Amino acid sequence: MLSIDRINSNATLAAALTLYPLVFRLAVRGHVTPKRLIVSREAISALHSLLISFASAAELYRQYEKWAPPAYRGRRAAKDDPAGARGPRPTLDIIDAQSPLGNAIVAWECGYLIGDLVALILGARRTTVDGQSRSIVGRSMNWKLLGWHHLGIGSALALFHIQACRGKEKGVLVVLLMFLMNISTPFGTLHWYLAKFRPANQMMVLLTHTAYLATYGLCRQIGNFGFR
Questions:
Q1: Which of 2, 137, 183, 204 is the most exposed place for a label (fewest CB within 10 A)?
Q2: Looking at residue 68, what DSSP letter applies?
Q3: What is d(CA 91, CA 88) in angstroms, rounded to the nearest whole number?
Q4: Rounded to the nearest 5°, which phi and psi values hold at 126?
Q5: What distances in angstroms separate CA 145 from CA 117, 149, 207, 221, one per listed residue?
């Protein structure tokens, strides 16, 4: 087994729970303005999405024989082992396939969602400097919807993590396929920033929105690829 398969998912969860609040704190240090608070959170979200997407894609590529359709597995095996010296590769149902690194990636995502949920709650409680009762985050984004999203997905991933610690997890590669859709988040974040702070640049607003929808749809199709 490769060394990356020995990553402890509990340590990964703890690292994410520690790192993201620290990064957010450093990003908003000093005088906190509404724009700085929200833009910092969105930037961290976009960077995290890139990290989790590329990590998931790399692990799915490494574990292709456990989830890819038979025709693709045959082409890939012929390319990697043209002489057939390794013999036939074992195949597993995508639900039963296991991936220690995949479990660590899920734990990292879970830690991020918990940290970001805390950031949303704190932002929702913070009022403007002139004492207005309406929160900074509440005036700028649908934080309640996003908060419920984080709570729901985070709870599901936390339950998965508990099962993984017991060696009873199922469908980790399915979860990684779903994580690929995070690659669309940076385009969505850029679209949000341009629409809110640079609305005059209509062409870029349109292009980023199109890129967001296109990448999201493409990654959904890649996810369906694993069930053929």
A1: 2
A2: S
A3: 9
A4: -80, 130
A5: 11, 6, 25, 26
Nearest 5°: CA angle at 10, between 6 and 11?
Answer: 75
Q: Which amino acid is at 46?
A: A
> What residue type is assigned to position 6 of the chain?
R
136-165 pLDDT, tens digit each: 565 556 777 888 999 999 999 999 999 999
Predicted TM-score (pTM) of this structure? 0.82
**What secondary structure, in 3-state letters, does 20-74 show?**
HHHHHHHHCCCCCCHHHHHHHHHHHHHHHHHHHHHHHHHHHHHCHHHCCCHHHHH
Residue ranges for the chain with pLDDT beneath 50:
1, 133
Q: Answer whether 66's CB lies under 8 Å from 172's CB.
A: no
The token pair that represents 196 in the structure block: 């809110």
